[in-house]
Amino acid sequence: MGSSGRGRTEKTLVKIEYMKVLIGCEFSQxxxxxxxxxxxxxxxxxxxxxxxxxxxxxxxxxxxxxxRLYDWDLIGLHPPCTKIALSGNRSYAYGKPxxxxxxxxxxxxxxxWNAACCKxxxxxxxxxxxxxxxxxxxxxxxxxxxxxxxDNVPKKTCLWLQNLHPLVWSNxxxxxEEKTSVVPEYIIYKSKKNKSGTSKYSIFGKLGxxxxxxxxxxxxxxxxxxxxxxx
Length: 231
Known about the structure:
The protein is of the alpha/beta class. It has a single domain, classed as Rossmann fold (3-Layer(aba) Sandwich), CATH 3.40.50. Mean pLDDT is about 85; it is low at about 1-10, about 185-195 and about 200-215. A seven-stranded mixed sheet has the order 3-2-1-4-5-7-6, sandwiched between helices. A two-stranded antiparallel ribbon has the order 8-9. It contains six helices and nine strands; from the N terminus they run E-H-E-E-H-E-H-H-E-E-E-E-E-H-H.
């Protein structure tokens, strides 16, 4: 049987699924913009006005209301950490006058996590090491540092994950991975000495009291890793 001489090319269509993403308690839009760059429909949410360059991607409202607003494919949470983080122990630790405020903040944050889990299949929550990292109502957190992902700052950070794999980073370039980590910068204060004669503090030590707003801005390297690996 002869051939017509015409070749036939079969094309395989690959369906790319784009997610509807909510980044709760974020005014900077650093994570939101990272997800937008990977093609997802991402929105930041905070009671504060947007400080990013895209107010049209910002939901200025209560985060619980934003969670109920749509069927989100992924929800990221960056709850306030002032009262929960170890850096607040001077005011909020057990036995301190404001300890009840820490307990209330923990309960609010657990409520936020549960609300997100009821609404979406994929959730992450981020907070510095603090009063919640051993709370048995949450999964065991992944512990990361900003300098693992190229931001030369030491700040031990917890990531609680539901149906998301831990973030991958590398100290070295090899056959399978590119180096992502850098050597973190420190400020040395000789006025506060340890056994070796000096103490090392994060560069956030320069900000001091009253700069919680600046310290709460998230790290671009981690945000990009989240968008690349989870998006």
